[in-house]
Each structure stands twice: as structure tokens, then as C-alpha cells.
Amino acid sequence: MTPIDGYPILTTAAMRAAEEACGDPAMLMERAGAAVAAAVGRLAGGSAILILCGPGNNGGDGYVAARLMTAAGHAVRVAADDEPRSALAIDARRRWTGPVEPLGTALPAPILVDALFGTGLTRPLENRTAAALHRLADAASLRIAIDLPSGVATDDGTVPTMPPRFDVTLALAAPKPAHLLQPAARQAGRVRVLDIGVPVTGDAHVLARPVLPDPGPESHKYSRGMVAVVGGDMAGAAELASLAAMRAGAGYVLYLGEGQGPPHGLVRRRWSPDALDDPRIGAVVIGPGLGRGDGTGARLATAIGSGHELVIDGDALRLLDVDAPRTATTILTPHAGEFAHLFGKAWGSKIDATRMAARRADAVIVHKGADTVIAAPDGRVAVSAGSSDWLSAAGTGDVLAGAAGAMLAAGLPPFEAAGAAVWLHRAAAAVCGRSFIADDLAAALSRVR
């Protein structure tokens, strides 16, 4: 069992293609069942195990795991509400020599293993199946899903039938979109990958810990990165972005707006049409607190025309013509409402929609949310797993924009800069714990670095 960070994310079609390229499907099911048996055996300790087997290959994996765990001395029972239908599942069921209990009347066990339906489900579960699954899950002390919780749609994270909330999901070979996209991801619990001997590749990955540039003995404030933050009507938001850029590692942060006060290391100047003429500026952050009043459009046009690398957030996204050409590298950081304003109604999964938006805008898109998706114009995607629900507070997006500016100014390419900022933002939220405010989040960036 390994954490999913850095793994390719495979859709149903991609997973099937990867499995077909491996050759003997019966051997692949045996390997999958063996990996499940080993993982569940470790998690279960000496507790009794109930495996729920469906009619397809996910159920086949369950039958194989039951056979191998029984042979290893574990107390295992199997329940099903239908006979196997695929040739592989039929053979796996035949090789399980124990009884198969009716799902509807099965008694619970401390360890519940859901092998009813895995990758590829697109329809709701039958009511009796869903009711039995919830009943048995409610009575279990540890709930484990094989590949995916039964009831979720693999490729877009929707839930045709809301499953129980599992403690652990054992992803076979690679994570799937539903392990990361909400609302399905919430039901999966901790996701761990089981190696079943299937090589996996793809242009969408789970966001991994970034490699960040550190200063050396020859470093100075400008070589570490100079970030200019363009202020506007609401100084607090732009100041939060400025503080975040400083805490994320920028060597010099210039705040262009009104107001005075700490931190004293923040350089403050009033906005002027030539404020961005300094060639040492490595990145410009515009949007946090900008407002939409007179002059804000001109500030955005000046920022775009400056030639500096850009992070465009907040109010600036409402003013931006996403189809207008830009010469500079750009990161756009919309939440769901801003994304809809820029690109219209999303099509397909959040991954699909963000990838298409990045191509259209010729920019890196950070599509924020509990399942933040980062996409580059060349089709690469990274999805952040496990963001804190406490990030749903005013100002946290401003902190992310400032961190992204610092990563750009430090010299990271835009896709990597966006990913590093999202990772730092998520890690800072974990440091803060519960009920934090955006100021705490910005300060926690120093601890994370």
C-alpha cells in the first residue's frame, strides 16, 4: 500500500487499456486479489472479515482475496446478492470453497470489505444492494473499499448512489478521478495504491510534494524573486497576498496600493501607470482586493502589458477577456463561480473542463475547490488530494495567489509554480488545524517552507 501522491490518474478507459496490455487477465485478477488479501490482512489484524462480492471483476477480486486470506488463517466470510457474470468472476467464485451468504441477510463483521462494484460503474445501485451495504458498513469498525466505493462514478466523481464513508480505499494499480474529485472523494477515505503489476502512465497526476528552490550563499533579495502585488479597493486582500508571497519565500515583495502598517519588510508604494516598469520584477499578482470600479480595468491592462509573468485572481478574473492574447506567462486561479464566468458551463469532469480551459486561455489554470485541479495548455494536469475543509474562509484564495506569485518569481515554470503553491497552501492549512483565518494561513507558509 502506497500513498497516491505523484501517481498517474487513470480513467475507466485508460485503466482497461493498461490491463489489456498486461496479457493474461486471469493472472492479473490473481495478482489483484493477492494484493487485496495482503493489505486487508494487515489492516484487519485478527478481526473477522466480511467481503461483499459483486457480479463483475471487482467481485472476482473479492473472491480471490477471500480464498487467499482464508488460506492464511484469517476468519473470512463472503456475501453476494447476485451470481458472477464475467468469465473471470465465475472462475474466481468457483475456486472459493466457502459459503456465500445472501447480501440482504448477511450478519455484519468488524471488518467490511466492499468488492461489489469498482471501476466503470455509471448507474445507481439497486435499492436493496445500497441498503445492505449501508447496514453492514454502519455496523463495521473498519470499512475498506476495493478500487472504489460502490455507488460512485469513476471518471467524474459523481455519486449515482451515495455510498457509506469508507475508512480506506485500495486503488488497484492507480488512482482514478473519483478518488480525487468531489463528492466521491469524500466517501473514499484514505486512498492507497496496490501494485498489481500493471504499468501506468498518463498526463494527469496526483499533486506531489514539490521540489522548491532554496537560497544559497550567493543569493540576494532579487535573485530569490521579486513579486509585485497590485492593490485596489480592498487593501486587506492584496496585503494578504503580499504577506503570503513573503512567507512562501519571495525575497522582495512590492505592494502597490494604499495603506501603511506591518510587516515592515513589505515595500509599499502608491500605484502609478509606470509602477511595473522595474525589470527586476519576477511576477505580478493582480486581483486580490482589486475591485471593479473606475481604473481597475486600466490596472489589469497595465499588468498584462508589462510583460511580467502574471498571477490573475479574484476581481481581475471578472475583468479579464480570457480569449485576448497575452505575451507573458499567466496563471489564472478561479474558484467555481469565476471559472463559469470565464469559460461558461463546465463540460465533463472537473479534470476535463480545466484542461480545456487551459488550452483555450493559453494559461495555467488553478481551478480551486476541495478538489483543486491544475491544468497546463499542453494537457498536463495535477489534482490536489485532501484539502482542508477549513480553507472555505475569506482571504484564503488571496494567500494562494501570493504563494503562486512567489513560486513564479523564484523561477519555477508556471505549471510547477502553480502546483507548488497549491501544495504549500494545503500543507499550511494542515499546520493551522481547525478554525483558522487567512492571516494564520499566510503565516503558516513559513513553517511549511
From TrEMBL:
Pfam family, one: YjeF_N
Cofactor(s) the protein requires to work: Mg(2+); K(+)
Residues involved in K(+) binding: N58, D114, S150
InterPro entries per UniProt: CARKD, Nnr, Ribokinase-like, YjeF_N_dom, YjeF_N_dom_sf
Domain YjeF N-terminal intervals: 11-204
Ranges of residues in domain YjeF C-terminal: 204-449
Co-factor binding comment: Binds 1 potassium ion per subunit.
Function: Catalyzes the epimerization of the S- and R-forms of NAD(P)HX, a damaged form of NAD(P)H that is a result of enzymatic or heat-dependent hydration. This is a prerequisite for the S-specific NAD(P)H-hydrate dehydratase to allow the repair of both epimers of NAD(P)HX.
Protein name: Bifunctional NAD(P)H-hydrate repair enzyme
Taxonomic source organism: Sphingomonas cynarae
Organism ancestry: Bacteria, Pseudomonadati, Pseudomonadota, Alphaproteobacteria, Sphingomonadales
